[in-house]
Amino acid sequence: MVISYDTRRKSLRPGQMKKTLLLTVISLSIPMGVLAENLTHLSQLLSTKQCPNCDLSGSGLVMSNLAGADLRGADLSNANLSQANLSNADLSGASLRGASLYGANLTNANLSGADLEGADLRKAYLYNSNLARTSLTTAYVEGAVGIPTYAATVEQFQTWALAESQRGNYQKAIDNFNRALSLNPNLPSAYLGRSLAYYYLGKESQANQDALIAAQLYQQQENTKGYETAMQVIQAMETARASTELQDPGPDYLSLFQGIAGLALRFLIP
C-alpha cells in the first residue's frame, strides 16, 4: 500500500501555533466525546441553571451561584460544590455520590431521592431542605445545620451530637441532642450528653436538670451503670460549684469534672 504525503506547508502566526498546540494537547489527553458532552452540560448549567439529567460528574463548581437550579436526576458524582449556593435548587433523584458540598447553602433545596453516599455535607446549611427518601448514613455531616428530624435516626443524631461535643462545639451538640430527644423523649443518654454540653456552656441550671432526668430514666429502666454515671456527673457539678465558693478550693475540681465527663461520654458512645 502506497501512502502519499502532502508536503505543502502553511505558515502559522505565533498565536495560531500556540492555539493549535493547546488544542492538540487537550484532544490527546481527554477521550473524544467526553470533553464535548461535559463542557456542553456545564456551560448549559452555568448559563441557564436548567440542566436536568446532565452529566456533571467531577465538575468544579466551587462557590457557584446555582440558586433555583434545575438539576433533577443530574449526575454530580465527585463534583466539587463546596460553598456553592444551591438554595431552592431541585436536586431530586440526583447522584451526589462522593460530591463535596462543604459549606454549601442547601436552604429549601429539594434533595428527595438523591444519592448522598460518601457526600461531604460538613458545615452545609440544610434549613427547610427536602430529604425525603434520602439516606445520610454514609454522608459526612459534621457541623451541618438544619438537618430535618425525619432525615436521620435517633442513633445518628446522638452520634453526631457526641462528635460535636468532643470537638467543643457544644451548641451544635445540644441541637443534635434536641433532635434525638424529639424522636425519643425517654432517651437518658441524650439528656446526660446534653447536660455535659450545657455545663461547658456555663448553663449549670439546665445541666443539673438534664442530669437529674437522665438519672431518673436510667433508674426506671433498671440501668445501674447509667444511673451511677449520671449521679457521678451530678456530684461532680455540685462539687465544682461548691469549690468556687471556697477561698482555698483545694484539688483541681475542674480537672475532676472533666475526668468524670470524659468517662460519661465514653459510656454514651454507641
Q: What would you report as the Rg, rounded to the nearest angstrom?
A: 28 Å
Q: What level of helicity do the residues show?
A: 40-55%
CATH superfamily of the largest domain: Tetratricopeptide repeat domain
Reading the helices and strands in chain order gives: HHHHHHHH
Would you identify the CATH architecture of the largest domain? Alpha Horseshoe
SS-derived structural category: mainly alpha
Q: Approximately how much beta-strand content do the residues carry? A: under 5%
Can you identify the CATH class of the largest domain? Mainly Alpha
| Count of discrete structural domains | 2
Q: How many strands in all?
A: 0
Average of per-residue pLDDT values: 83
Question: What gap, in angstroms, lies between the N and C termini?
Answer: 75 Å
Gross geometry: elongated
Number of helices: 8
Q: Find the CATH topology of the largest domain.
A: Serine Threonine Protein Phosphatase 5, Tetratricopeptide repeat
Structure description:
The chain has about 270 residues and is an all-alpha fold. The protein has two domains: about 50-150, E3 ubiquitin-protein ligase SopA (Pectate Lyase C-like, 3 Solenoid); about 155-270, Tetratricopeptide repeat domain (Serine Threonine Protein Phosphatase 5, Tetratricopeptide repeat). Helices cover about 45% and strands about 0% of the residues. The chain contains eight helices and no strands. It has helices spanning about 15-30, 35-50, 155-165, 170-185, 190-200, 205-220, 225-245, 255-270. Helix 4 runs antiparallel to helix 5, helix 5 (about 190-200) runs antiparallel to helix 6 and helix 5 packs parallel to helix 7 (about 225-245). The longest helix is centred in the last third of the chain and has 20 residues, at about 225-245. It is elongated. Mean pLDDT is about 85; it is low at about 1-10, about 15-35 and about 245-250.
